[in-house]
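Duplicate of #3305? Posting structure anyway:
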């Protein structure tokens, strides 16, 4: 198959590209970074270098493809983040329409069905709705859990404060996912040409903050490491003091509140959806420890 991949060679797209190439598919990898061109071509894929917000460029990159893996970068600037991501998502939608591609796998998120109170996930709600306006395109919304690798940002907290914490309650059930499990799921979906548009979840494990903290504590040799639940205000202020831009701090605090209240993960937890990912918390804890 001819498949176009957005996301360059990032945490999800990188392993996805390698898997699809190993399976014999012909790939075009979209990247905004010209320095990635050599890396992409060295793997055996074609590189399309340009802006993820340029629908005309994307349409040319997608032209002739049997399927597209669509994702927007985790951050498009430090301000108007949700609006910028929606803009990029809609540019991909426009390119799909113009290029005539009939199969798309969109990397989405748990909570994307909600129309507010989800922080950065709000962009994916709008993007999913934009795909619903396409005719004769088979779209899978691949809704991923909370990325394990986001916890790598907590390493300084553990080192300097001797704790792990956020505005999540200690007993909050969190669907978690490893990027490599997302890549495997996306690879399966991209080659599935039959069927109708649907929603599929990719989750590697479901754990509470206390269980996550204990797994990390055991892996890094710090038994008894506590999980501390912050108020929303303290969580946001702590992020600001750590140098996180104000808009990002507000968005991630809102997402934490949505998880704490159980809204963001409700559709997955209540819908009898399976946990298909192979990389469990204990597996990721070893990765976490290697970077500690």
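Output from current build:
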């Amino acid at each position: 198959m001819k498949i176009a991949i957005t996301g360059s060679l990032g945490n999800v797209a990188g392993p996805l590209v390698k898997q699809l190439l190993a399976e014999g598919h012909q790939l075009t990898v979209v990247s905004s970074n010209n320095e990635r061109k050599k890396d992409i071509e060295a793997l055996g894929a074609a590189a399309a270098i340009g802006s993820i917000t340029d629908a005309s460029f994307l349409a040319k990159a997608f032209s002739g493809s049997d399927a597209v893996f669509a994702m927007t970068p985790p951050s498009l600037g430090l301000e108007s983040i949700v609006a910028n991501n929606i803009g990029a998502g809609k540019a991909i939608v426009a390119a799909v329409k113009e290029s005539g591609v009939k199969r798309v796998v969109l990397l989405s998120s748990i909570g994307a069905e909600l129309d507010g109170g989800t922080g950065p996930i709000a962009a994916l709600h709008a993007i999913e709705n934009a795909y619903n306006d396409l005719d004769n395109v088979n779209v899978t919304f691949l809704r991923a859990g909370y990325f394990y690798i986001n916890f790598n940002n907590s390493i300084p907290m553990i080192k300097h404060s001797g704790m792990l914490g956020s505005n999540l309650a200690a007993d909050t059930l969190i669907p978690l996912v490893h990027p490599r499990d997302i890549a495997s799921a996306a690879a399966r979906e991209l080659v599935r040409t039959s069927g109708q548009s649907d929603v599929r979840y990719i989750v590697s494990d479901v754990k509470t903050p206390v269980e996550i903290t204990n797994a990390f504590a055991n892996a890094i040799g710090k038994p008894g490491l506590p999980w501390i639940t912050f108020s929303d205000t303290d969580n946001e202020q702590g992020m600001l003091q750590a140098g996180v831009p104000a808009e990002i701090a507000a968005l991630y605090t809102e997402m934490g509140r949505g998880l704490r209240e159980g809204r963001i993960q409700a559709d997955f937890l209540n819908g009898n959806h399976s946990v298909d990912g192979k990389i469990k918390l204990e597996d990721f804890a070893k990765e976490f420890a290697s970077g500690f």
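Confirmed duplicate; merging threads. The chain has twelve helices and twelve strands. The radius of gyration is 19 Å.
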